Amino acid sequence: MATPHPLTTTVSGADVRVRFCPSPTGLPHVGMVRTALYNWAYARHNGGKMVFRIEDTDAARDSEESFRQLVDALTWLEIDWDEGVEVGGPHAPYRQSERHDIYREVIDKLLASGALYESYSTAEEIDARNEANGRAKQLGYDNFDRDLTDEQKQAFRAEGRQPALRLRVPDEDLTYVDLIRGEVTFPAGSFPDFVVVRPNGVPLYTFVNPVDDALMGITHVLRGEDLMPSTARQLSLYAALIDAGVTTFVPRFAHMPLVLGETGTKKLSKRDPQADLFLHRERGFIHEGLLNYLALLGWSIGPDRDVFSLDEFIAAFDIENVNPNPARFDQKKAESINGDHIRMLDVKDFAERTVPYLAAAGLFDEPTHEQLVLAFRAAPLVQERVQLLGDVPGMVGFLFRDEVSYDEDALKGLPANAADVLDACVAALEPVDDFTPESIQDALSTALVENLELKPRVAYGPPRVAITGRRVSPPLFESMELLGKEESLRRLRGLSAFLAR
Question: What is the average pLDDT score of the chain?
Fold first, then answer.
């Protein structure tokens, strides 16, 4: 039975080093963010370091715009890093595209140690040999070039061929202990010698990724389950890097569960709305709420508890407690948890966070002092009622508009005597000098509940629609106070006139 490499690291605490190394292609998605979150939390829990580097060797797909979006995403989420792009560190540069000279030195060491060898076989030649030898085509490369003589190599070069470089894979079982999944063994012969450097001299991702980990002293590789099959190749390369003196240890690996879509039947696609990080921000998730929910996609702080602070998460998180089973993204649960975090905010903090959403909804461009005061006074009225910051403009928009737009369902829900109710409201409020929620409620309660003998649910429907245009709104009496007496009376008369048409 195979045993893990004897030089597998055993470090803990402040010596822990993890990395987040995305490719700058497309928009950041929640699966990527969960990977960053778990790495960040593991580093912070242990008092270790997180490295943020960029895998940008695919010039056709990588873009500076995507890189800036990655930085924007981590900055908004307040996931910080100790070394890497933007902040520097002892292992710079942190972009693969800027590390070619470093890779060349490592390649030369592995060639000298015999770990790498020149391979001239074409895909057609490999297929033909497999067919001739009765070997399944899908098995791929047959290790044919392992022991080419110098004469054979020279003959191939004379034909104009340039060699790829392949890693000489150990002819033995490879075993490691996954921090999430336990012991995993890759049987000898389950994969062939693989290309690490193209014939044009450019190293492949399968080479540069583990090499960067080795050179940067990464002790724990925490990544997605979909990358688990490549671990065998990484273990093979690490053994070669140790033999060549490039590093002294093999890192620990942990493979996080897949994130499934709402149906729970397939992996969350980058094209799914739930995967779009910036769409969540645009709709009004706050970073505390979104990170809390993403933390639950594979991990739990305890039974029957879903809401916790980031500090509590860091204190409790251990990668070994992550569940290996796939996690389903539940939009409703995510929004509910976000609402819980909104209610945990200081009211001033909440109010400040609503301002960009009010502006995006067209309620103002550059807010005036009066508009900011109004926004801050309105915030406590809705903080307990919203799950997303994007819900706020719809609830308080009536405060910033001169004309009320009546929702169709709100009009349909009005009683037949709505105009009489509104006229009674006007008559009751005109004499009120101290226009506070308490005095407004006293006046309306007397006029509508006592005098007209209406149930409160019926009584306050017409003035609510008159003031806000909506059937559901912030507290009515506080809303009228914010609008002021004259504007409130104007709106009450306005709906009465509208109904009389």
Answer: 95
Is 270 assigned to a binding site?
yes
CA dihedral 469, 475, 479, 482 (to 10 degrees): -160
Q: In this model, does residue 1 exceed pLDDT 60?
A: no
**pLDDT tens digits for 31-56?**
999 999 999 999 999 999 999 999 98
Long-range contacts (CB closer than 8 Å, 24 or more residues apart) made by 437-444: 437/475, 437/477, 437/478, 437/480, 437/481, 438/477, 440/477, 440/480, 440/481, 441/477, 444/477
Give the separation between CA 153 and CA 120, rounded to whole angstroms.
8
Residue-wise over 306-344: b if at least 16 C-beta within 10 A, else e?
ebbebeebbebbebeebeeebbebbeeebbebbbbbbee
Closest CA to 439 of 428, 453, 423: 428
Give 408's contacts (C-beta < 8 A, 6+ positions apart).
none
Q: Write the pLDDT tens digit of every residue in 444-501.
A: 999 999 999 999 989 999 999 999 999 999 999 999 999 999 999 999 999 999 998 8
Whole-number Cα distances in Å, 59 to 23, 28, 62, 228? 11, 18, 5, 25
Q: Which two tokens stand for residue 421?
A: 């109710």
How far is Cα 176 from Cα 252, in angstroms, rounded to an integer? 8
pLDDT of residue 274: 86
Residue keyed to tokens 């306005």: 494
Please, are residues 81 and 51 in contact by the beta-carbon 8 Å criterion?
Answer: yes
Q: Which residues does the annotation mark as catalytic?
A: 270
Angle between helices 485-499 and 418-429 (to 10 degrees): 160
